[in-house]
Amino acid sequence: MKVRIFVMSDLHAFDSMFSKKRKPSWFDIAKTDADGDNPIADLKTLIAEKGISADYLFFCGDLADQAYPSATERAWREMHQINGLLGSKALIATAGNHDLDSRHIHNDHDAKGCLLGLKPSFPLTDEHDCNHYWTHHFVVVEPIDIPVRIITINSSAYHGEKKEHERGRISKRTLDRFKAVLKGRTRKSANIVMVHHHPQKLSELKRGDYDDMIGGYDFLQALDPIEYGPWLVLHGHKHFPKITYAQGGGTSPVIFSAGSCAAIPDPDVQDQVGVQVYLITLDLKAGDNSNCYGKFETWDWAGARGWNLSQKRTGLPSSGGFGHRSDIGLLAAGIARKVTAVPQHWDDIVRHHPKVLYMIPSDLDSLIQCLRTKHKCRLELNGDGKPVYVQL
Amino acid sequence: MNAEAPTVFESFNARSLEPEQVAKTFVAPSFFSKLASRCHSTLIGPRGSGKTSLLKMLQPHALESWQSAEADSFRASIDFTGVFIQTDISWNRQTIALVDGLPENAIRAFRTAAFTTQVLHSLIETLCWRIGKPTGDTTIKFRRAAVSMIDQKRVVVALSETWGLSPATDTFTGLKHALAGRIVEIWQAAQNAAISPRGAINFPSWVGLDFLSCANQAVEMFDDAAGENGAKWALLFDELELAPQWIMDGLLTALRSTYSRFLFKLALSPFDEGFKQAVDALSAMPLQDYNEVLLWNAKKETGREFSRKLFLRVFEDQNHQLTSFAEMVGFSAVENDEESLSDYGKSGQRYRVLKKALSADLSFAKYWKGTGVDIEHMDILSEEVRAAKIRKIYPLVYLRTQFRADAASKRAERQIRSSRKSIKMYHGSSDLLDISEGNPRWIVGIAKMLIDEARASSFPLKPYQQAAIIEGTIHRFRARMKTISVGPSRIQGKLANLLALVDSIGDFFGKAFVERDFKSQPYLCFTVDSHISDDLAKGIGRAVNAGAIVYVPEKDAHALLHNVRGKKFRLSYLLAPYFRLPLRLGESISLTRILTDGGELSHTGELPLLH
């Protein structure tokens, strides 16, 4: 059984009519869809033209930049339109640091007031779920038609208090409550948990990392794969696309860091991070149910060219997988035994080692490196960095 | 100023489209079968006339994915593999400066190497496609080939050795990647050579590779591996006017080469001074070995059917299913397809127009007298007489009468050229088909603007709505023409540009048509005579490449121009509304007479302004 989820994050909508700062995002609510240079309008075109569909749409936070109310409202409407185009059963969101008016510029000491007033309700449409989210800073949803548990956590819950906006947090009380709510629940084929801030450090852009989620380590430890099934953690905030595994053993959660779907990267990193959206397909039968297995597709947005399958250099590659963790050296040796002086299509290798499709991009890179250096294999890679042919 | 001319709708350019994308909206013009035949071809047309699309459609990728009623018959008749070769920045004319500092022989050597590398890269890319599997839902296979991995390795190892390449794997993909790396290597070698002492340049061995013998080796080995002995391959060279002369010369030599497996299809703009050798060489080719495909229509009727189909195709792509072009734009005022006998009776439109002209236009009244036709009894004339004496001149009389009425107003007297009011005279299906000149880029641009206009309106669009689109299109075209130099000639002391030249010609024709004596064949063509300076002659050539001026070749004349003298031209019909001109070929006059109409051509070759 497969479950398809479409993932977007960090829209940072703004209104150029009322902002004199540097543009934070390509999504300017002062412009119409026809004005061009609009990734959200282009995304609707992509979904319609390619017939992309998903079971759920996840939005990892930061609808608007600096909680500008009309931008927040417009962005939320756009997200619901996209949800409709995808034919998704529900749009599930979480609050980002930019969604809370923590500096009280647009409100009278009610940082989350704008989010509470959104129609349809935020972050889910069910009123009871919303109330739980705003009261306990998380909500657990268990759809009846799929063996998957969905959890959305508010890591910006305390924004509005001094300095709190500088990082995310899951408090001890929230975590205890979270554990208590899960206790005794049935094991699922997969658990998807979404949070805005990154629960473990992410400092690839060489800028240091000071805004990770306080309590992130304890939170990840609480995601017990044996008791509740394998875990996929989705987060945004860093605008840095990456897929990795949480620290821990061979069943630690998959952590999917979504890039922004519209924010303009800072000039010093714009060649390393692109504007991206993702379609993740969870393959509930692929593994042994202790790891979350799946594949993903990535689209990059580039101005007039619109959305296209991504280039690896600007974030995640156009396609890839996650879930399969094995000894790279052993796998490489197994593959190398099949490699001959006559070139073979990599598809033939995959036919014998199908789990290769579920390796995260960095593991695949390590496998390629190992085949080249240790086993002296010659590999032909495509523009996305994936092998096409292999020979000795 | 640019020497080369951009066109109105630069954004609608097939250059950046994949062959499959070109195939998606391709409408085959009548001459596509000629281009697709098993012989060498030159494909000649101004910018935007669809050369790139046509060449790309000869690639197997495009032919396999092409879905239309005629696609099957083309797939059945095309038995060659097309290899599309874009003129690349690394060897085209504009990059000479980039390798400045190198001696001429080194520049030429490195650019030849770049040319060879690009031809081979395109060829190997095509081989990769041919051994691949069809993607998507298509069940059609066109020119796919089965080559075993062992054979692929054998071919690649041999080619790599000859071509001096070290691919990552012994596959066509590996070879393609290695050729892409070779381009980088060429620039590095050129940079190193630029700082070497003169006479001490060590050229890598691959610099001297000849593109045709390398390509021949590749396809011979591929055909053997695929079991396709005797197969034909077409090398499709686009934008060759941008290539250095010696590349062009090399291709002309290749046309007469002994490598019989290759066909050459060369896309060119109509004019270049360097075409002399090409014209001589092509003229000497046996007719059965070579054909010439022209992408413009000196006579408007020949391009209408293609234009009509393409307009409807663009509308269809934008979810407007129309059965005729007239549904969108109605019929034109002077060429109403539904003419009836009652039009010539006393209450008919044609009667009223002619009657008005007879009373207001003395020279027309004089002409009419000479025809011997009694205006009060036109409806009893035979069909033949009516066609010869009235129908032929009616559109002229209609336009002239309207424009003369405009000119009678004080405000309009100051205007030489058209206002929106007079542009409104040009509307409806036949006018828009003629104005768009069969130029795909113009048609796509105009069609999209018509659709935008139709979103907030109903069909058919009103003449004023069409006039706004035509006016905007002309305005953009004229703005581009202004940026194109016609050399050091001067018009009233100012540097001449293409726009000034075209305005001089257009104003002459407009004035002659509207203000001077009525002629059943008004001056609408010109011949470039011997009094015209070299600079200006080149300017005319550039205008032809830009599509502003259209070459009207004599019967059996070669369409490639290296010298415009003695040749006949007309203005693009796109400009006709601006200058108040009828959409027809008309009579020819010498360019010197046009340019001296308002003064004398000075002995220095400077051009006087007419107005």
In brief, what are we looking at here?
The complex is a heterodimer of chains A (392) and B (611). With 392 residues, chain A is α/β, with parallel strands linked by helices. Chain A contains 10 helices and 16 strands.
Strand order of the largest sheet of chain B: 2-3-4-1-5
Helix/strand-derived class of chain B? alpha/beta
Number of strands of chain B: 11
User: Which consecutive residue ranges of chain A, at least 5 long each, have pLDDT under 50?
Assistant: none
Describe the biggest sheet of chain A?
Answer: 7 strands, mixed
Number of strands of chain A: 16
Q: Distance between termini of chain B? A: 24 Å
Mean pLDDT of chain B: 82
Poorly predicted runs of chain B are 1-11, 599-611
What oligomeric state is this? heterodimer
Radius of gyration of chain B over all CA atoms, rounded: 28 Å
Report the span from N to C terminus of chain A. 38 Å
Q: Indicate the percent of residues in helices of chain A.
A: 10-25%
Please give the share of residues in helix of chain B. Answer: 40-55%
- Structural class of the secondary structure composition of chain A? alpha/beta
Proportion of strand residues of chain B: 5-15%
Instruction: Please give the largest β-sheet of chain B.
Output: 5 strands, parallel
What portion of residues of chain A belong to β-strands?
15-25%
Biggest interface and residues each: A-B, 13 and 12 residues
Shape of chain B: elongated
What does this structure look like?
Chain A has ten helices and 16 strands. Chain A has 392 residues and is of the alpha/beta class. In chain A, strands 1, 2, 3, 10, 11, 12 and 13 form a seven-stranded mixed beta sheet that branches. A six-stranded mixed beta sheet of chain A has the order 4-5-6-7-9-8. In chain A, strands 14-16-15 form a three-stranded antiparallel beta sheet. In chain A, α1 runs parallel beside α2 (69-86) and α8 (328-338) crosses α10. The model of chain A has no long low-confidence stretch (mean pLDDT 90). Chain B is of the alpha/beta class and 611 residues long. In chain B, the strands form three sheets. Chain B has a five-stranded parallel beta sheet with strand order 2-3-4-1-5. In chain B, strands 9-10-8-11 form a four-stranded mixed beta sheet. A two-stranded antiparallel ribbon of chain B has the order 6-7. In chain B, β3 (232-237), α10 (245-255) and β4 form a beta-alpha-beta unit. In chain B, α6 (104-131) runs antiparallel to α8. Residues 1-11 and 599-611 of chain B have low confidence and may be disordered. Classes of the chains: A alpha/beta (392), B alpha/beta (611). The interface between A and B is medium-sized, with 13 and 12 residues.
